[in-house]
Amino acid sequence: MKKITIIAALSCIYTVPLHAAGLDRSGQSILAFLQPNNYFEAGISVLDASLSGTMNDNFNKGGLSSAANMHTGDIANSYYSPSAALKFQLTDHFSLGFLYDHPFGADAGYPIKEFQAYTEGTEKSESEVVSQNLSTIVGYQPNENWNFYAGPALQTVKGKSRLRGAGYSWSRYDLDAPETTGVGWLAGAAYMVPDIALKASITYRSEINHDMDMTESLNILHPVYGRIDLGTSTEKSNISTPQSINVDLQTGIMKDTVAFANIRWVDWSEFKISPKMLYQFTEQSTGAGVHLAAYYDDQISANIGIGRKLNEKLSGTFSVGWDSGAGDLVSTLGPSKGYWNVGLGAQFSPAKNYFISGGVKYFWLGDAKAQSGFDFGTEKYDAVYQDNHAVGYGLKIGYRF
Fold first, then answer.
1. pTM of the model
2. What local confidence, expressed as pLDDT, does residue 175 receive?
3. In 3-state terms, the chain is what percent helix, strand and coil (to 5)?
4. What is the CATH number of the domain that holds 244?
């Protein structure tokens, strides 16, 4: 039992915020539900990214010779993400848990002065996506080794976007998608061997469908007739946040020391945001409908590390992470192709039943070619993003009762 307590403590401190492929943010960890006995935790994570690039000739759709090699400025806005978990061990064989997080999101803006000069005033392109997820989980433990669990997931999503300038065929496009709710599910199994502090789990989360009332307005710059206002329209559009699989592993490797790993797959290649007005207009005018956001490949990420109990009150972790990205051409919502990172974490336990933990990760963001939705499915791209980085911070409190 002592070894399990050490594992439970260390597993709480190696997860700090992600900057992953697609719109992935939280990583949707299940580890809080696998804590022994009754357990509560609450945390907050912050990501501060520096993400800038250089526009190329494809951006110059409006015939401006100075567009090539123009710098975008830092387009990534810092964000914070709260999370919480509550788990009850109802009997020796049944448990009930609730997990809350912000699994997906984006917050990008293009502030460059040169770009603004070509977009009629000081308006800029910017997009934001916000989601919340509450999972209810029921677990069945036939013995001390196995835990089978499943339950529904309630999810909300909202978003807005303002697209301006040459990178978007000289259009002025606004989108407002008020918050909507969808329901999905998760299921998984965990295997534990207390004597060697082994814990292994695999968790599947379904895609979640959202029928959204999207309000769009579109204004284009015609080469002959000048600017044409195509009006405003509100119609239902469907998006589905992607299905995913998480594999979590941890085991004792020597006294007071554990090794851990997490592998995650997310089905981003099936994800698309296709507002009806934008899609239908571009399909009629060009023969190919435009997606506001889409990805070419699925995401695979991995995080491995070690944790060690330093004394009765203090523990620490070190981790290394990798993310594949979601294709060689990426969305302008998050223009990086995966990452490498290193992380450090520490946990202070003033008493056996509660702790405070924190962590920091440094990310080397992968170089990427960013493509607007107008060019999805082609080899065209608007900008190249290189030598970018991010720093993530996390703080968590936990209580066992």
1. 0.88
2. 93
3. 10, 60, 30
4. 2.40.160.60
